[in-house]
From TrEMBL:
<feature type="transmembrane region" description="Helical">
    <location>
        <begin position="221"/>
        <end position="241"/>
    </location>
</feature>
<dbReference type="InterPro" id="IPR052902">
    <property type="entry name" value="ABC-2_transporter"/>
</dbReference>
<feature type="transmembrane region" description="Helical">
    <location>
        <begin position="307"/>
        <end position="329"/>
    </location>
</feature>
<dbReference type="InterPro" id="IPR047817">
    <property type="entry name" value="ABC2_TM_bact-type"/>
</dbReference>
<protein>
    <submittedName>
        <fullName>ABC transporter permease</fullName>
    </submittedName>
</protein>
<feature type="transmembrane region" description="Helical">
    <location>
        <begin position="253"/>
        <end position="271"/>
    </location>
</feature>
<dbReference type="GO" id="GO:0016020">
    <property type="term" value="C:membrane"/>
</dbReference>
<feature type="domain" description="ABC transmembrane type-2">
    <location>
        <begin position="102"/>
        <end position="332"/>
    </location>
</feature>
<feature type="transmembrane region" description="Helical">
    <location>
        <begin position="193"/>
        <end position="215"/>
    </location>
</feature>
<keyword id="KW-0472">Membrane</keyword>
<feature type="transmembrane region" description="Helical">
    <location>
        <begin position="24"/>
        <end position="43"/>
    </location>
</feature>
<dbReference type="Pfam" id="PF12698">
    <property type="entry name" value="ABC2_membrane_3"/>
</dbReference>
<keyword id="KW-1133">Transmembrane helix</keyword>
<dbReference type="InterPro" id="IPR013525">
    <property type="entry name" value="ABC2_TM"/>
</dbReference>
<dbReference type="GO" id="GO:0140359">
    <property type="term" value="F:ABC-type transporter activity"/>
</dbReference>
<feature type="transmembrane region" description="Helical">
    <location>
        <begin position="140"/>
        <end position="163"/>
    </location>
</feature>
<keyword id="KW-0812">Transmembrane</keyword>
Length: 335
């Protein structure tokens, strides 16, 4: 039977353990702050000569464009999505071969350069105008860095700690008390959830006020996305550590889970030009949905309806990970 008193005892103990570990606390705060500031300084202005052109309502590049050099063509299913990218100077031109239309951003110098390169192909197309100012790389990368910090703090803060408890015999001693596995798991998950959410929110506010990166949407919606993303990753940490005894094996498995997410979820770069199978695989990762939702709100000003799909996926992943983690959880001894 679940007892609030026993749950609160475990919850309080885990929180005190973290706050008294000054090195872990400092690293969780300092690393993402330094990373964001460094990105803001190094990548403050775009520095690339390659053109990027969006193609709408087609999955194949027109044969007339096969000989065009130094230009990357990105395919979009939605005209609105492509125009949003164009308005933020993330692509230089949008072409809709079906409707014989092309879209150019009047504030983009590279857009007019792309027009010059593609002038022969676009001679029979009608021009449409799109307005919007460029976003800095730091505006784009901040959601990725915040999410990456949440991922590492959640996975290792739950998974590694539980395995250490099991290896050192702490779980065995707790199992001899009236504390149930549900009470212990709930306390561990909620403790890490609140710590990670508090640190991430603090990092966001500090960097937003100091660097002034772009935030077009609702702060409350951003907090909801952070909360659901944190919950899914904390639950994944529990699932990984549910029965493991070895800290070395746990570290390897947590790295095996975290590094593909960091590479495939769009933390540092967009996957728009990646093969379709890579983009499909990325949709299986909780970090992808967290980053995509944060960017949609911060950069495009998306509302809850636009990111509802990501929120539902994160919620479903949390439920699945917690259910499986609780099912397979072991104290490390027969109780």
């Amino acid at each position: 039977m679940f007892k609030a008193r026993r749950f609160l005892a475990i919850f309080k103990t885990r929180n005190l353990e973290f706050w008294r570990d000054r090195s872990a606390l400092s690293w969780n705060l300092a690393f993402p702050l330094l990373l964001i500031v460094g990105m803001a300084v190094v990548f403050d202005k775009p520095n690339t000569t390659e053109l990027k052109v969006g193609l709408v309502d087609t999955q194949e590049k027109p044969s007339e464009l096969e000989t065009i050099k130094y230009t990357e063509f990105v395919f979009y299913q939605s005209q609105q999505e492509a125009n949003n990218k164009l308005s933020h100077h993330q692509i230089d031109l949008v072409i809709n071969p079906t409707l014989k239309l092309y879209y150019v951003n009047q504030q983009s110098s590279k857009g007019y350069l792309a027009l010059g390169v593609l002038s022969d192909y676009l001679a029979s197309f009608e021009q449409q105008q799109v307005n919007g100012q460029a976003i800095r790389y730091v505006d784009w990368v901040v959601p990725g860095i915040l999410s990456m910090n949440v991922m590492f703090s959640s996975l290792f803060g739950v998974g590694y700690v539980i395995v250490r408890y099991r290896k050192n015999g702490v779980l065995k001693r707790i199992s001899a008390t009236p504390v149930s596995s549900i009470e212990f798991i709930t306390a561990q998950l909620l403790s890490r959830f609140m710590i990670v959410l508090a640190i991430s929110s603090s990092i966001f506010l500090i960097t937003w006020l100091s660097l002034g990166f772009l935030v077009e949407g609702s702060l409350m919606l951003l907090l909801l996305i952070l909360a659901l993303g944190t919950a899914s990753l904390v639950a994944l940490g529990l699932l990984v550590a549910a029965r493991l005894q070895s800290e070395e094996l746990t570290g390897g498995l947590l790295n095996m889970a975290s590094w593909p997410m960091m590479l495939l979820s769009g933390v540092w770069f967009s996957l728009e030009g990646a093969p379709q199978w890579v983009q499909s695989a990325a949709q299986l990762l909780p970090l992808t949905h967290m980053i995509d939702a944060l960017r949609a709100v911060m950069i495009d000003g998306a509302g809850i309806q636009e990111v509802a799909w990501h929120l539902m996926i994160l919620t479903l992943m949390t439920i699945v990970f917690v259910t499986l983690g609780a099912k397979f959880f072991s104290w490390g001894s027969n109780r």
